[in-house]
Amino acid sequence: MRMHMYVEVLKSKIHRAVVTEANLSYVGSITIDQDLMDAARILPGEKVQIVNNNNGARLETYVIAGPRRSGVVCLNGAAARLVQPGDIVIIMAYAWMSLEEANDFEASVVFPMPGNKLPQ
């Protein structure tokens, strides 16, 4: 009997985005500029892990698409207590795949420019 093994690997990463807002009154999630989401292949509603480089906080939430070319990276709800505007964050999404798929897979990694804009 052949066993199928799966591993969880990094699928998408937005590396060193700047938090533009923290909205405690919102119902939860992270709002990300749709252009950044597209470049990193992150979907609306997708679960992401967020690491705050300024204070070491780590959290998980889901994504809401923000306006294109806005540069928005806004932590909403309880997550807003773990960031301040201006903090540097890394946003990561993961996927389960077979060992064979994982060996050939390359994550989408985006390095935003100032204002959370995409490199030209």
Automatic annotation (TrEMBL):
Pathway: Cofactor biosynthesis; (R)-pantothenate biosynthesis; beta-alanine from L-aspartate: step 1/1
Enzyme class: lyase
Residues where substrate binds: 61, 77-79
Residues annotated with Pyruvic acid (Ser) modification: 29
Keyword Lyase: yes
Any one GO BP annotation for this protein: alanine biosynthetic process
Pfam families named among the record's database cross-references: Asp_decarbox
Record key words, sorted: Autocatalytic cleavage, Cytoplasm, Decarboxylase, Lyase, Pantothenate biosynthesis, Pyruvate, Schiff base, Zymogen
Cofactor(s), names only, from the UniProt record: pyruvate
Compartments (UniProt record): Cytoplasm
InterPro entries named among the record's database cross-references: Asp_de-COase-like_dom_sf, Asp_decarbox
The organism's place on the tree of life at top rank: Bacteria
GO cellular component: cytosol
Cofactor detail note: Binds 1 pyruvoyl group covalently per subunit.
GO molecular function, one term: aspartate 1-decarboxylase activity
Post-translational modification: Is synthesized initially as an inactive proenzyme, which is activated by self-cleavage at a specific serine bond to produce a beta-subunit with a hydroxyl group at its C-terminus and an alpha-subunit with a pyruvoyl group at its N-terminus.
Major location category of this protein: cytoplasm
Catalytic activities: L-aspartate + H(+) = beta-alanine + CO2
Active site location: 29 (schiff-base intermediate with substrate), 62 (proton donor)
HAMAP family: PanD (MF_00446)
Subunit structure: Heterooctamer of four alpha and four beta subunits.
Membership in a protein family: Belongs to the PanD family.
Cited function: Catalyzes the pyruvoyl-dependent decarboxylation of aspartate to produce beta-alanine.
Name of the protein in question: Aspartate 1-decarboxylase
Organism, as annotated: Porphyromonas crevioricanis
Gene name linked to the record: panD
